[in-house]
Amino acid sequence: MKLLIVIIQNKDANKLQSQFVKNNIQQTKLSTTGGFLKSGNTTFMIGIKDERVQEVLDLIKKVSRKREQYMTPPVNLDGGVSDASYPVKIEVGGSIVMEMPMDNLYHF
Amino acid sequence: MKLLIVIIQNKDANKLQSQFVKNNIQQTKLSTTGGFLKSGNTTFMIGIKDERVQEVLDLIKKVSRKREQYMTPPVNLDGGVSDASYPVKIEVGGSIVMEMPMDNLYHF
Amino acid sequence: MKLLIVIIQNKDANKLQSQFVKNNIQQTKLSTTGGFLKSGNTTFMIGIKDERVQEVLDLIKKVSRKREQYMTPPVNLDGGVSDASYPVKIEVGGSIVMEMPMDNLYHF
Ligand code: NI
Ligand code: NI
Ligand code: NI
Question: Any signal peptide, and if so, which residues (chains A, B, C) (predicted)?
Answer without folding.
Answer: none
